[in-house]
């Protein structure tokens, strides 16, 4: 944390704000708490497994068609929530991103706040290319805070200008002046573990003390690192993962009970969601190893072909190898959908998944394949990749997440069937406070769930598919991308499907 304090000095001044208050008087007594349960599958939410969250879901809003941003990884979705925009606009393309001006040979780890702060200083404050929630609320004289047991990087991306109260994370408390206060009043955070129950309990103590205080933030974001952290290490549906989920539910129950005990039910909105789903994993050789084996990359550490996550960047001398790389990957069962700027040679265009960002775009983005197989604990969904379980692909099990909302601003006992996504949360929160954007977000206001609006007064445009196959070659590789949308919104990614074999 010491180095983080020093690096914090590199944070640059904030950008011009994009929003102005409407003439409608803002309700300064209204509080909104957005809780991200990292890696929470919708089918984990049962009365037995998560009784507190299930009760809130039954009493308030349950969205049945809610989706993360692709790729289904944490830091992409944290930034998309915070900015109400897709990666094509905010510029955070993955859990690691390639920024040659920062490091010409390897990616920047977006889970590490030190690396992000340094990258932001090199890029003169333009690492995140659009205004973020903390900036917008601050401009409109509303306080904001982030409370997280997730990575320091995801915490920083949720409030990268350190607005309002700031960031409270066991490993990163900013501004520095807040650290002494938190530790003095509530003690040092315990060490992390699987499950991360002790840290979650410590964080909940902080939330109850600060977020629910009368002078506390108008908007708070809470991020619980489980079940993601435990599931990565142990698997989907295994007893220790289910224990982790129950322990997170208990902390959410503590927050709900504190709201009730303080008589704040009519003044506090609570939204519960996730950053992505989760699946069991099958092994794959890995992209870089495969390209070396096929003679398409010189060595595991060579810079002729740089792999950062699923993104492939080719040196000028290797640009003419792109089609050969695509052809080779299309033969492999572990490879799913692939993307290029123009959708060449059987790939889909970046625009189809709202991805890519100016000079940060790679030559190729590779997604891992997936299946509907069911694991020994009864949970469907497998994808290729490393580890025993994970996320990041365009499978329906990773591209489906819960959204629950309860509070004075939302309808009661209402199921929303319209498609929605992570990018819609910021515009919806701003509506609650009478803040009208001066420029359009990628997300929409979820008017159908608001208490003063009619229900599903408009219709979704319906699921559509984009299909591609190579112009030449013998791979018989075919891919379809399924999306849904609302009038005036970008596409919500539902799933991709990859088929190999003869027509």
Helices, strands, pairings?
Elements: H1 2-7, E1 19-21, E2 31-37, H2 51-59, E3 61-63, E4 66-67, H3 74-83, H4 87-90, E5 96-97, E6 108-109, H5 113-122, H6 133-139, E7 144-148, H7 152-157, E8 166-169, E9 172-174, H8 176-186, H9 197-211, E10 219-224, H10 228-234, H11 239-261, E11 268-273, E12 279-282, H12 287-293, E13 305-308, E14 311-314, H13 322-330, E15 335-340, E16 348-349, E17 364-368, E18 370-374, E19 380-384, E20 389-390, E21 403-406, E22 414-416, E23 420-421, H14 425-432, E24 435-437, E25 464-468, E26 477-484, E27 492-500
Helix pairs in contact: 9-11
What does this structure look like?
26% of the residues lie in helices and 23% in strands. The strands form 7 sheets. A 9-stranded mixed β-sheet has the order 9-8-7-10-2-11-21-3-22, with helices on both faces. It is an alpha/beta fold and 503 residues long. It folds into 2 domains: 323 residues, Alkaline Phosphatase, subunit A (3-Layer(aba) Sandwich); 122 residues, no CATH class. Strand 13 and strand 14 form a beta hairpin. The protein is built from 14 helices and 27 strands. Helix 9 runs parallel beside helix 11.
Considering the chains and any ligands shown, give keywords for the structure.
503 residues; alpha/beta; 2 domains; disordered N terminus
Beta content comes to: 15-25%
Number of strands: 27
> Mean pLDDT score, rounded?
92
**CATH architecture level-2 label of the largest domain:** 3-Layer(aba) Sandwich
The CATH superfamily label of the largest domain reads Alkaline Phosphatase, subunit A
CATH class of the largest domain: Alpha Beta
* Contiguous helical run count: 14
Radius of gyration, Cα only, in angstroms? Answer: 22 Å
Q: What's the end-to-end separation, in Å? A: 57 Å
